[in-house]
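Bug #77: duplicate submission created two jobs. Keeping one. Sequence:
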Amino acid sequence: MNTTDVENYPGYPKGILGPEMMEDFRLQAERFGTDIRFGIATKVDFSVSPKKVWIDGEKLIEADSVILATGAEAKWLGLPSEQRLNGSGVSACAVCDGFFYRNSEVAIVGAGDTACEEAIYLSKLCTTVHMVVRRGEMRASKIMQDRVLKTPNIKVYWNSETDEVLGETVVEAVRLKNNQTGELTEIPVKGFFVAIGHQPNSGVFKDYITTDDQGYVTTVPGTAKTNVEGVFACGDLQDKIYRQAVTAAGTGCMAALESERWLSEQEG
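Kept job's structure:
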């Protein structure tokens, strides 16, 4: 719902806008009798059967089985210009949106393995990748750092942070601030990628569902099963590696099949 052009989802040869694709998904689900309701899950109780989910703090829904598909949100720098130009040159997914900046200069912020992976990916599409690192070193693994530093069209700006993303309707440049000297530098770019991590939307489940140290829901390998019987998790809520719509849909299918199987076993 928060993205613009989606080019890498099967079945859309000409691409499609994110909200339009979600509308297609909704209509298809309703065609098979899905009861779709809108609201925010604010509280759950998975210690009882049926499980309980409160919507918007007041509406209670009870269910024998629950599938968690609340996804993850990209972490942002907190700049007003970053949010204003989100989808107009600002992105949190190089693999999703890098294609739009082929043969252009781009900037990427981050210092971990994901930032390095995305910088290398962008380097294969873009003329120059300007990588902004807040400290004088990266958090990424040594092998990923070496790959970045050996890639000729990746230029690393150490001890620097983003002061502002520039442009009225689309990204035109990024202004960097050197943390040691205070010097400001403007770099003309067409794309600005933020790769400082994601925050899974798992907080409401934390009293019942096991998560890793980053908050991603832990599932039994090769399945969508959580530590609670009858509760399954799918998509970016439990996937911190691929984070693609198509892989999320695949694990959603797994969760649906496993939930159906689990319900059948309870009836049996």
